[in-house]
Design goal:
By secondary structure, the protein is of the alpha/beta class. The protein has a single domain, classed as 3-Layer(aba) Sandwich (Rossmann fold), CATH 3.40.50. 38% of the residues lie in helices and 13% in strands. It has 6 helices and 6 strands, in the order E-H-E-E-H-E-H-E-H-E-H-H. Strands 3-2-1-4-5-6 form a 6-stranded parallel beta sheet, with helices on one face. Strand 4, helix 3 and strand 5 form a beta-alpha-beta unit. Helix 4 packs antiparallel against helix 6. The longest helix is centred in the N-terminal third of the chain and has 12 residues. The radius of gyration is 15 Å and the shape is globular. It starts with a strand and ends with a helix.
Length: 159
C-alpha cells in the first residue's frame, strides 16, 4: 500500500492526485493507494481519499505503507522519516495556486540534497522512483534540532 498525504493547508493540490492517478493508470503504481486529500477538489479515479485523518490514523497508514507520497510539509516528512518510511515528495507550487509561495520547493530541495527523500514532479520521475523505492539509499533521519531543521524553521518563520 502507498499512503499519500497533502497536509491541512487550505489550498488544493490537484496536480499531486492527478499524477498518482496517471501512475496507477499507466501501471507504475500497482498497489492500493490511500490518500489524505485536505482541501483538494480533484476526484481520483483509481484510489480512495479522505479529507482528513487523525494523527493516529496517519501513523497507522504510514506504518502499513511501502512508501509515502507527500507534499513538502516539514512535519509530514519528518514524521514519515522517523517511522522509517521512504518518502517521495511532490512540492506545491505558488504559480499553480497550490500555496502562497514556493517554500515547499526549497524544503524539498533541502531534504533531497541531504539524502533523506526523493522528489518527483512528473510521471517519468514517478516511474523511476515508485517501483524502485526500496532499492534507493536514503540517509537515516534522527530528529534533533539540527542546522537543517533550524534553517527550515527560520525560513518558514520569515515568511
Amino acid at each position: 500500500m502507498i499512503f499519500a498525504i497533502v497536509g491541512t493547508q487550505r489550498f488544493q493540490f490537484n496536480r499531486m492526485f492527478e499524477l498518482i492517478d496517471q501512475a496507477i493508470e499507466s501501471g507504475i503504481i500497482e498497489e492500493e493507494v490511500i490518500a489524505q486529500s485536505g482541501y483538494t477538489d480533484y476526484k481520483p479515479k483509481y484510489f480512495k481519499v479522505e479529507p482528513f485523518f487523525s494523527q493516529d490514523q496517519i501513523n497507522d497508514y504510514v506504518s502499513q505503507s511501502r512508501c509515502v507520497i507527500s507534499h513538502a510539509g516539514v512535519g509530514t516528512i519528518t514524521n514519515c522519516l522517523e517511522m522509517g518510511k521512504p518518502v517521495i515528495v511532490i512540492p506545491r507550487r505558488q504559480a499553480l495556486g497550490e500555496h502562497v509561495d514556493n517554500h515547499q520547493l526549497e524544503i524539498s530541495k533541502v531534504f533531497h540534497d541531504s539524502g533523506y527523500v526523493a522528489v518527483a514532479e512528473s510521471l517519468e520521475e514517478m516511474e523511476d522512483l515508485v517501483p524502485n523505492i526500496e532499492t534507493l539509499t536514503f540517509q537515516p533521519y534522527i530528529r534533533k534540532e539540527s542546522d537543517l531543521i533550524a534553517s527550515i524553521k527560520n525560513y518558514v518563520n520569515s515568511l
